[in-house]
Design brief:
InterPro entries: Ig_E-set, OxRdtase_Mopterin-bd_dom, OxRdtase_Mopterin-bd_sf. Keywords: Membrane, Transmembrane, Transmembrane helix. The protein has eleven helices and 19 strands. By secondary structure, it is α+β, with helices and mostly antiparallel strands. It is globular and about 90 Å long. The protein binds ligand MTE and molybdenum atom (MO). The site of the ligand Nc1nc2c(c(=O)[nH]1)N[C@H]1C(S)=C(S)[C@@H](COP(=O)(O)O)O[C@H]1N2 has 17 residues, from loops.
């Protein structure tokens, strides 16, 4: 019995240590050791696991990774507590120390947005110290002081043990509770930013079709897909933010957030797409961005001969490589500071990110950008390129059926299908729908907003009882038809036609 209690003690010790570390992470902005481990898991996962992780990171599996790591820890801690209750107290404490050390090592090698080394290592250090102390405490609380004591026939002082463990649990819960307030939400950082009026504003929004279930032309910020490799979203104070523009340039430039706001600002609707998006998938969204044209900044610093790339780095050290040509060929590549009329949400790169029409996010859309180096592709390799994705990746013409959803039941008679199609930089000129193996029929298109956004479409058809397959294809504004050749996302984006099967009754 007391061994089971010992295991419980181990779990409480681990929980208290993790809670203490979480609190310190909230205070310092350094990585919680669990997250430091998680980021390494993400960075080091092999191909398919990585693809899965990246694809699902924006959704429920981000917490899942944390939960997985915590469950593993708790199991080991329970075993340590159990061993401790069998009298091997030093071993139990050593295991706790070992776990804490692992966290510290991961924090040392981790990509982190923490401001200083102390901030980066403090959460893991505190976790380690609390883990050792807490494990020592619980493994010493149980064993009876007087062997053979009549009240403790099995040599285990249950009362003292439970008191100690309860006290520890209260401390842990207190730390966890305090952590919720410690870092704050950081929203005051965003609230302080006043989004300036753009020098060159976008026109009124008029490209929107309103069909129930269709993706709205503008994706609300809260619904915008999210893909990155972080468990802890950076909360950068714009007053501390600085962008360094350097490399193959005539004169280096360091820009503060206020200095960025003083430049020429353009407002544009641009549809962002993730290379990991499967045919028919959700990892694409359209927003109205305000930002400084990258071309203006490049002109200011003077690009030297021989440069063909920009290597941009986010605050956590992740790198992205973008062709210089895409930043200077006249398209609206921007350092964005507003998204749909608000400062960027933290999840989407606050305070500043890059947005480049026509390129998948992983080669262009650096969130939390802090460094911008003009360079040559042959002189570096970027984070995703190191993981098997193409160095250059223009967005492929794609179309998606939003309604009806796959395997939906539809009433017989006149029915509506609707969705979106995108071919950023080229624009969409035609969308067609095929019912079963019938002829391709034109869908109705929303008005053109610009070449860099998706276009909504609707299609009326007469639904007859039975099972039917709807397939969609788009033609870009250069007249090129979307390919029906199926390709998976890796290495440079999925292709193939999206279809959906519906039951008509
Ligand atoms: N710092 C940083 N920026 C990043 C990424 C990242 O992992 N880290 N992911 C990129 C990828 S793969 C995509 S598709 C877009 C997604 O931007 P969103 O999360 O705002 O939709 O951001 C890009 N910028
Ligand atoms: Mo992406």
């Amino acid at each position: 019995m007391h061994r089971a209690l010992g295991a419980l003690g181990g779990v409480v010790a681990a929980g208290t240590a993790l809670a203490a570390g979480y609190l310190v992470a909230g205070l310092t902005g350094g990585p919680w050791p669990v997250d430091a481990v998680g980021v390494q898991v993400i960075d080091r996962s092999p191909g398919p696991v990585k693809d899965w992780a990246v694809r699902s990171l924006g959704t429920a599996d981000r917490p899942l990774l944390r939960v997985g790591i915590c469950v593993t820890l708790v199991i080991v801690a329970a075993v340590a507590g159990w061993i401790g209750a069998r009298g091997h107290r030093r071993t139990a404490v050593a295991i706790a120390g070992g776990l804490g050390l692992v966290g510290l090592v991961f924090a040392i090698v981790s990509r982190s947005s923490a401001a200083s080394t102390v901030d980066r290592l403090l959460p893991a250090t505190v976790t380690l110290v609390v883990a050792v102390l807490a494990m020592a405490l619980v493994t010493h609380a149980g064993p009876a002081r007087e062997p053979g004591d009549a009240e403790q026939p099995d040599g285990f002082d249950r009362r003292r043990f439970l008191l100690t463990v309860s006290a520890l649990a209260v401390v842990g819960a207190g730390a966890a509770g305090a952590a919720r307030f410690a870092g704050g939400s950081g929203q005051e950082l965003r609230a302080r930013v006043r989004v300036p009026r753009p020098t060159d504003a976008a026109g009124p929004l008029q490209a929107s079709l309103d069909v129930p279930g269709i993706s709205p032309f503008t994706t609300p910020n809260a619904k915008f897909y999210r893909v990155d490799t972080l468990l802890q979203v950076p909360r950068i104070d714009p007053r501390d933010w600085e962008l360094r523009i350097h490399g193959l340039v005539d004169k280096e430039l360091r820009l503060s957030f206020d200095q960025l706001l003083e430049r020429r600002l353009i407002e544009r609707d641009i549809t962002l797409t993730c290379v990991s998006n499967e045919v028919g998938g959700p990892y694409t969204g359209n927003a109205r961005w305000i930002g400084v044209p990258v071309a203006d900044l490049l002109r200011e610093v003077g690009v030297r001969q021989g440069a063909d790339a920009v290597k941009s780095t986010s605050v956590d050290g992740l790198t992205i490589g973008t062709p210089l040509a895409a930043l200077t060929d006249g398209r609206d590549a921007i350092l964005a500071l507003a998204m749909n009329g608000e400062p960027l949400p933290f999840e989407h790169g606050f305070p500043v990110r890059m947005v480049v029409p026509g390129l998948y996010g992983y080669v262009s859309a650096t969130k939390w950008i802090v460094d911008f180096e003009v360079t040559r592709f042959r002189d570096f390799s970027a984070y995703w390129t190191d993981r098997g994705w193409s160095v250059e990746a223009p967005i492929k013409t794609s179309s998606r059926i939003d309604v009806p959803k796959g395997f939906a039941t539809v009433k017989a008679g006149p029915a509506v299908a609707a969705g979106v199609a995108w071919a950023q930089r080229r624009g969409i000129s035609k969308v067609e729908v095929q019912v079963d193996n019938g002829p391709w029929q034109p869908a109705r298109l929303a008005p053109v907003d610009g070449p860099d956004t998706w276009r909504q479409w609707t299609f009326r058809w007469n639904a007859t009882p039975g099972t039917h397959k709807l397939t969609v294809r788009a033609t870009d504004a250069t007249g090129e038809l979307q390919t029906d050749r199926q390709a998976s996302p890796r290495p440079n984006g999925s292709s193939g036609l999206h279809n959906t099967v519906v039951m008509v009754e």
